[in-house]
Design brief:
about 425 residues, alpha/beta, Rossmann fold, about 45% helix
Length: about 425
């Protein structure tokens, strides 16, 4: 009886949190072939514009591009290393994605504090994304930089430990402060962190938007292109970290960020520590069934089925990358929530089943809450403990297994 009451209470709370925002927009379905033109045209897959007037022909054309992406994923998710890496110092801004009064008040307070000189500035890694879009602000990558404290780095050097860093990818529609606490926590372990703004999020969001609608939307190809850009941006951040002398790397992704993080890890063996906070094997299933994406499903329902959507978005679904992800040796954590109405429990369990099937070295943790309630007390502390303790242990084990002779390390240091 108590468990049923708790479940009803949790589902009601979760529903209240997912329905409180009033600025979700039902946009028309668009095939968006132009977003993939640089990949499709050289392969003879760019359809005639008239094809968009025939849903079946448009679906067939996008499926053909999707299949080509999966056949040549190294090209699609490949990139040229940026040459304009730089650190920028500025006052952090919130970039809210909802119009709730308390959020707008907080945003105004932060702006006022910065204008009055009461706020501290922070460092942000900036560079031009190797994947270009029609939005210049989106193409200027932004990652808040949390270097480990100097004393922690010195202690690691003296102990002969490799320099370690983690990339943090928050959830869809996260504001610019989301997950910053986790970065500070990792610093306490001597691990530096880059908190990466996903495409179309916070400072990268086009002025025409209130939310990060272009990251996941009823524009099918644009959603694929946003994932491509996110994965490439992650890999470019690894390049910058290597240029700073870091040697071992991890990634933490939440919700949409977990999808981007998974594909990046599959494509880039440098990511040896992976924490997935709410994950699914199939991109389309979450969009179709999740409470927070119901406005996108509303657009799709008259045009296609859930199965059709899964086929179209196979090239951005972790399931399509399981072989690559499982190949290198890496440690992974999967956190899911029992009462999640955005990433339904059955889809979370599919992740665990596939990890077991492919022999991934992973740990599983379960939160007794939902998707949005993960950010509420006391569940956010439980989630933080799961994520923080795993990252600490995984990086510690990685440091031990990755140790090299002292003479070799000293030779490398002298050469720098």
């Amino acid at each position: 009886m108590a468990s049923k009451f708790y479940a009803r209470w949790m589902f009601a709370w979760e529903t209240a949190l997912t329905t409180r925002d009033t600025n979700r927009i039902v946009r028309p379905v668009e095939w968006g072939f132009d977003w993939l033109e640089d990949f499709a045209r050289p392969r003879g897959l760019m359809p005639d514009p008239a094809v968009e007037h025939s849903p079946q022909d448009a679906e067939d054309a996008l499926l053909a591009i999707n299949n080509a992406i999966l056949r040549d994923r190294d090209a699609f998710y490949g990139y040229t290393c940026p040459t304009d890496f730089r650190l920028e110092e500025r006052h952090p801004q919130l970039f809210p994605t909802n119009v709730r009064p308390q959020t707008l008040r907080r945003d105004a307070q932060l702006r006022a504090a910065a204008a009055a000189g009461r706020a501290k500035k922070a460092h942000f890694l900036r560079f031009t994304s190797p994947v270009r879009t029609p939005y210049p602000e989106n193409d200027l990558v932004n990652a808040r930089w949390y270097p480990a404290p100097p004393e922690k780095q010195r202690a690691a050097r003296q102990a002969g430990r490799p320099r370690q860093a983690i990339i943090v990818m928050p959830q869809w529609n996260a504001d610019a402060f989301s997950h910053n606490v986790l970065c500070a926590l990792f610093n306490r372990f001597g691990i530096s962190a880059l908190r990466l703004s996903k495409p179309y999020h916070d400072i990268r969001r086009p002025a025409e938007l209130e939310r990060a609608d272009y990251a996941v939307s009823a524009n099918l190809a644009r959603t694929i292109a946003a994932c491509r850009q996110a994965v490439v941006d992650i890999r470019a951040c690894l390049d910058w970290l290597e240029l700073q002398g870091y040697e071992q790397f991890g990634i933490l992704g939440t919700s949409l960020g977990s999808c981007y993080a998974f594909i990046a890890a599959a494509m880039d063996p440098r990511l040896q520590v992976c924490a997935f906070n709410h994950a699914s094997m199939t991109f389309g299933d979450v969009v179709w069934t999740g409470q927070s994406s119901r406005h996108i499903r509303a657009a799709f329902e008259s045009v296609m089925t859930q199965e059709q959507l899964n086929g179209i978005w196979a090239c951005i679904s972790p399931l399509s990358f399981m072989n690559q992800f499982a190949a290198p040796e890496r440690k992974a954590l999967v956190v899911h929530a029992t009462y999640d109405l955005t990433f339904l429990k059955r889809y979370s369990l599919e992740v665990l089943e596939n990890f077991r099937r492919y022999g991934v070295d992973f740990e599983s943790r379960v939160l007794p809450c939902g998707h949005y309630t993960t950010g509420e007390t006391p569940y956010k502390y439980m989630d933080g403990w799961f994520l923080g303790s795993f990252v600490y242990r995984a990086f510690k084990d990685l440091a031990i297994s990755g140790k090299r002779p002292v003479a070799e390390r000293e030779g490398e240091l002298a050469a720098r």
